[in-house]
Amino acid sequence: MSRPAALRLGLAMCAALLANMAGFSVFAALLPTLQAAWHLSNTEAGIIEGAFLVGYLASVPFLVAMTDRRDARYIYLFSTLVAVIGNLGTALLGDGIVSGSVTRFLAGMGLAGTFMPGLKLLTERVSGIAGNRAIAFYMATFGLGASLSTILAGMVGHRFGWQAPFYVAAGLGLLAIPLVFGNVERVARSTHGAQPLWRRLLLAWRNQTARGYSLAYALHMWELYGFRSWLIAFLVMASTGSLAASADTSLTSWGGLVLALGLPASVIGNEIALRIGRRRWLVFIMPASALLSLMIGWSIAWPFAAVLGLLALYTVTVSADSATLTAGAVESAPPEAKGATMALHTLLGFAGASLGPLAAGAILDLFGADTRLGWIIAFSAMGIVAGFGPIFLRRPS
User: Which domains does the chain have, with CATH numbers?
Assistant: First the structure.
């Protein structure tokens, strides 16, 4: 593929990912508002946020592994429509833990069939160093999508009501369909001798190098999603001294800008890893992020500018390993097993991601969401778990 064609394809896939992620952070960004409107405890809020990730987990092994044998464009189309239904369902039916969990579960299913299948569409057509960098930018776009979703939720939700961002997310999700079908050409698939899903996942698991990156990714996602899910609530607490619903849209905007730092951090982290070696970079950055997490809860009474500065630095360390871990897993897999390897990678990753927000919510209920101690323990639990990630990485032979 020529460089202009590769660039056009990469931009199209990143734009489609942004469109599909418009509803990604809405629940977390409006968490204090939705807790009040739906009468939720912190644990119940963590369950609803976790339901999105459980929906992802329940679908991703089948949808991603299927891309080895089916045209991923049609998997992408189906999944986008499921995500649209999930976002519309939250806007129309959301009023508590049951309705919130079911509709967010559907939205998570939709993401399962767009995020990694989108990466598969990209990596099948762009290879080499260009392919490695395409992976880095695509993975970094995920963080940008989370950031823009947070900003969207604050700007629209506080002005037009909490339902409005979910309506907007459903509409934007539909834009991903022409972006993919208008820029991605069909690639022939061979189903001759295709093995059942469980066997392909087992073979992917037996790839020692790829498995190590995927297990480390699971711990990374525990930290990343715990942080993303409770960031706005932490900013509300640091700003007002209470978790009561706040109409201050600047808090979601500040949170979105903090999360936006994940894009350059992920890309630059991948470039550093290419130069010094993936394992060396990960052995440094994952424990560094864990150490920084120990400081976050202590900052809750600091001046707000200092809190933002510390959170910005933490975002950089949390995000700087993401693209490196995924590129390591993908490039360690043979071509015929890339779909199954991506399925296993994202399955393990989002298993960690589904537990991170729930664990943080339970800790806050146990130790007090209105206390510094509660936030110290919650953030420490996020980071310390991820700090053990490098133990799974295979030493170069």
Answer: 8-181+201-392 (1.20.1250.20)
236-283 tens-digit pLDDT: 888 888 776 555 667 888 888 898 898 889 889 989 998 999 999 999
More confident residue, 268 or 10: 268
The CA distance from 326 to 53, in Å, is 18
pLDDT, residue 397, reads 45
| Cβ-contact 219, 359 below 8 angstroms | no
CA distance 296 to 293: 5
**Could you tell me the CA-to-CA distances from 6 to 15, 122, 187, 336 in Å, in that order?**
14, 9, 15, 22
Residue 209 pLDDT more than 50?
A: yes
Tell me the residue length of the chain.
Answer: 397
Token pair of 65, please? 């592994």
CB 224 within 8 Å of CB 322:
yes
pTM value?
A: 0.76
The first and second tokens of residue 164, run together, are: 């409005």
What is the 3 state secondary structure string of the chain?
CCHHHHHHHHHHHHHHHHHHCCCCCHHHHCHHHHHHHHCCCHHHHHHHHHHHHHHHHHHHHHHHHHHHCCCHHHHHHHHHHHHHHHHHHHHHHCCCHHHHHHHHHHHHHHHHCCHHHHHHHHHCCCCHHHHHHHHHHHHHHHHHHHHHHHHHHHHHHHHHCCHHHHHHHHHHHHHHHHHHHCCCCCCCCCCCCCCCHHHHHHHHHHCHHHHHHHHHHHHHHHHHHHHHHHHHHHHHHHHHCCCCCCCCHHHHHHHHHHHHCHHHHHHHHHHHHHHHCHHHHHHHHHHHHHHHHHHHHHHHHCCHHHHHHHHHHHHHHHHCCHHHHHHHHHHCCCHHHHHHHHHHHHHHHHHHHHHHHHHHHHHHHHHCCCCHHHHHHHHHHHHHHHHCHHHHCCCCC
Listed range (182-191, 215-224, 340-349, 351-360) with the worst mean pLDDT: 182-191
Which tokens hold the place of 372?
């510094």
Q: Which of 73, 78, 168, 136 is nearest to 328 (CA)?
A: 136
Dihedral pair phi/psi, residue 317, rounded to 5°: -70, -35
Six-digit token string for 298: 């202590």
